[in-house]
From TrEMBL:
Listed name of the protein: Uncharacterized protein
Superkingdom in the source lineage: Eukaryota
GO MF term (any one): methyltransferase activity
InterPro entries: NNMT_TEMT_trans (IPR000940), SAM-dependent_MTases_sf (IPR029063)
Organism listed in the record: Ornithodoros erraticus (European soft tick)
UniProt record similarity statement: Belongs to the class I-like SAM-binding methyltransferase superfamily. NNMT/PNMT/TEMT family.
Length: 79
């Protein structure tokens, strides 16, 4: 993905922290749970600089789904 973004280009990521899975209909699908520091490390190693990170706990989103801790949006610029 990093190779598709040129110097000065931006990337915006949305995701869930502490995500153990998601429900589709009556079926629950398991997910790989990745922490924020893994995302930050990977993007820095790929040559990006962080411009912002917003995270909101699932309770504040009105979600009764306990399969994730919080939702996030983060944006980065390619150096």
């Amino acid at each position: 993905m990093a190779e598709l973004v040129g110097p000065g280009g931006h990337i915006i990521l949305c995701g869930l922290t502490g995500n153990l899975g998601y429900v589709l209909g009556q079926k629950t699908f398991k997910c790989f749970c990745y922490p924020q520091d893994l995302v930050v490390h990977a993007l820095r190693e790929a040559g990006f600089a962080n411009k912002g990170w917003i995270e909101v706990p699932h309770e504040e989103l009105g979600s009764k789904d306990s399969l994730f801790d919080s939702a996030f949006v983060t944006w980065w610029v390619k150096l």
